[in-house]
Write a structure and sequence with these properties.
This protein has about 130 residues and is mainly alpha-helical. About 80% of the residues lie in helices and about 0% in strands. The chain has five helices and no strands.
Length: about 130
């Protein structure tokens, strides 16, 4: 069952990312070639913010339901965003574009930390503050 959810999650990530590529192509005028899409600031920043929003939603839902594995999947998606920011966005030209991506992702990560801390392990009793 865990493998099924993993495959469905990865397929959803690919599908939503592909929709973002089509949006960037049609509405932002990015040419539909692999090189143009990869080099586009709009596509790369959109990926970073889109994937962070997806991780945020997954982590908030998992926190509210007390489910640790989906929360960890959201954290893994955030780690993927960080790796993408370091490997792809830092290698691209232009300082202003990088700043937008880093600040956007950083602010969303602050929201994650505030609204969706890691749920306790199963079987752990949570003590309320007095």
């Amino acid at each position: 069952m865990k493998a099924l959810w993993t495959v469905l999650g990865l397929l959803a990530l690919v599908a939503i990312s592909t929709v973002w590529l089509r949006i960037a192509h049609h509405y932002f005028g990015v040419p539909w070639t692999a090189v143009s899409l990869y080099d586009s600031f709009v596509v790369q920043t959109g990926y970073a913010i889109l994937w962070t929003l997806m991780a945020l939603a997954l982590m908030i839902v998992a926190h509210r339901r007390g489910l640790r594995p989906p929360w960890l999947a959201g954290a893994a998606l955030l780690a993927l965003v960080i790796v993408k920011l370091i490997v792809v966005d830092l290698s691209n030209r232009g300082g202003g574009e990088r700043i937008v991506a880093f600040i956007g992702v950083g602010l969303l990560m602050l929201v994650v930390g505030y609204f969706a801390p890691l749920p306790p392990k199963a079987g752990t009793v949570r003590q309320e503050a007095p």
